[in-house]
């Protein structure tokens, strides 16, 4: 397959017009048309932009057939790139299989700042359903700074679960935690457990502030001093009576904090 044929196929797979593709690359519709007709060939910088945009290698873009030795090197079904010298190390791996134009797996790591985008993405900056990197964004995200449905990182934001030094989520666990259920050194939430806990409904900790407060220093309507004996299930019953919609396992969790 020639470069012009490959470009036409890739553009149509993305559902783009010549004008839309040109806007992404920074050229006019007429330039894209000439490329697809085979009248002209893109300069090197435009070829690199096309490779990045379509997430394919230069060989694939220009329609170059690989030899048997190269196929063995690329492990048959997958493409990989590895470069090393005294000052620089870089490894990139991108599966040829893709979903909605996104590689199934993309790994892009090394000295420097490298981006990875795939269903499973690993890189300095990673975006994918499962993302791992210094900065990670995905349904499941793990990284120094992470955002996702479930996320783990030094600074973590998760729709359902967040675990990290600073975490925000429906369930947040961390040094500083903010969430529906927050657990941490300093916890703020509807239900909060921590050294210093502030809860819109229930708070438990060394210092606890909430309508129901459990701890050594407490501020609230209903307070339980954990330095004194508390009857079994007393905290659980108090929570369920004041907030009948509370899950029983959650009320039982606070009953254990004594």
How would you describe the overall organization of this protein?
The chain is of the alpha/beta class. The chain contains 8 helices and 11 strands. It has helices at 3-14, 18-25, 29-37, 44-54, 58-62, 68-73, 234-242, 248-255, and strands at residues 78-84, 89-95, 98-99, 102-103, 105-110, 115-117, 120-127, 130-152, 155-209, 212-219, 222-225. The strands form 2 sheets. Strands 1, 2, 5, 6, 7, 8, 9, 10 and 11 form a 9-stranded mixed beta sheet that branches. A two-stranded antiparallel sheet has the order 3-4. It is rod-shaped and about 85 Å long.
Let me know the largest β-sheet.
9 strands, mixed
Number of strands: 11
Taken as a percent bin, the fraction of beta residues is over 45%
How far apart are the first and last residues' alpha carbons, in Å?
A: 71 Å
- The amount of helix comes to 25-40%
Q: What is the number of helical segments per DSSP (H or I, 4+ residues)?
A: 8
Count of discrete structural domains: 3
Give the averaged pLDDT, no decimals. Answer: 83
Task: Give unreliable regions as ranges.
Answer: 73-87
CA-based shape: rod-shaped
Order of helices and strands: HHHHHHEEEEEEEEEEEHH
Oligomerization status of the protein chains: single chain
Structural class: alpha/beta
Computed over alpha carbons, the radius of gyration is 27 Å
């Amino acid at each position: 397959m020639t470069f012009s044929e490959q470009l036409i196929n890739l553009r149509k797979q993305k559902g783009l017009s010549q004008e839309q593709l040109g806007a992404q690359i920074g050229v006019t519709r007429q330039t894209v048309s000439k490329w697809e007709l085979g009248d002209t060939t893109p300069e090197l910088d435009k070829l690199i932009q096309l490779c990045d945009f379509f997430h394919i290698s230069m060989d694939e873009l220009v329609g170059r057939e690989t030899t048997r030795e190269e196929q063995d090197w690329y492990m048959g079904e997958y493409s990989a790139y590895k470069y090393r010298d005294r000052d620089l190390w870089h490894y990139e791996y991108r599966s040829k299989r893709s979903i909605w134009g996104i590689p199934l797996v993309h790994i892009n790591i090394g000295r420097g700042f490298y981006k990875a985008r795939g269903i499973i993405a690993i890189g300095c900056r990673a975006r994918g359903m499962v993302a791992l990197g210094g900065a990670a964004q995905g349904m499941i995200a793990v990284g120094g700074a992470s955002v996702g449905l479930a996320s783990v990182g030094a600074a973590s934001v998760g729709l359902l679960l967040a675990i990290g030094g600073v975490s925000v989520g429906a369930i947040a666990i961390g040094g500083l935690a903010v969430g529906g259920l927050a657990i941490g050194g300093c916890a703020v939430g509807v239900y909060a457990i921590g050294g210093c806990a502030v809860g819109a409904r229930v708070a438990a900790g060394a210092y606890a502030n909430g309508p129901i407060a459990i701890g050594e220093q407490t501020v609230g309507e209903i307070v339980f001093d954990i330095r004194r004996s508390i009857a079994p299930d007393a905290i659980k019953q108090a929570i369920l009576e004041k907030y009948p919609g509370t899950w029983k396992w959650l009320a039982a969790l606070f009953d254990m904090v004594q």
